[in-house]
Write a structure and sequence with these properties.
Elements: H1 14-17, H2 29-37, H3 41-45, H4 55-72, H5 78-88, H6 97-106, H7 116-128, H8 131-165, H9 167-170, H10 176-192, H11 200-209, H12 212-224
Length: 236
Amino acid sequence: MRRAHRKSKIDKPLFDRWPDLAVLPIKNPQREKTFLKSGTLLAYLAPAGRGQIHPSAYSSRIVEIYRRCYEQERIEKRNSILEDFVASFPQLVLQANWIREVVKKSFTNESSGLNETLLSIGKGFRKAADPAQRRDKLITQVRLEAARESQKTFSKNLVSWNRGLKRRDALHGSCEWIREESKRKVTELVTEDPKLKPVEWKLIELLVEGLFYEASIIMAAQIFEVPRRRLERKEK
């Protein structure tokens, strides 16, 4: 008599055994929105690359992320969140009940001026209709996120390099030794990425002075072609 085959966990498809990302709480909506705009939200939610989320649940998460960002933003800047959501995800506007409430509230305000809420929604739809504008904005966001992550790596590497110098011992002698070591390090960095050539001497001076955070900001901004002010004090 043949034994009935007992189905084990191993028999289940691998995808079915992966955790459901939809159950993860939204702890930091601003951060999730940033990853969402750069196309890396799923990688952020599942760093090991193992996770699943139903398309409808993913859409609901996007709507909820923007709702929380809108409510947490200062009143004078909320319309920019609204415009960004409509421009980035026009297909989800009708699914976002919070937008309906925002529009209703905009008509209760006693004002004879322009309805800024409707203007923001209109601007969002106009941006959504222009694929070139959406593409350029996405590219900028991706570069910015890459620059922020690289800046942290640059800073750690420079701090580690400085430890190896034993700077304190060198200060008892000639400081020219530190300058020469800084030149050697910057030459190495420029060789690895020629985009750093225009800021070569600035980097040397910062390394001599031990200003590694500032040097990492300049490096990331120069390599990824983003404004330095967008990187400063984000992760110091």
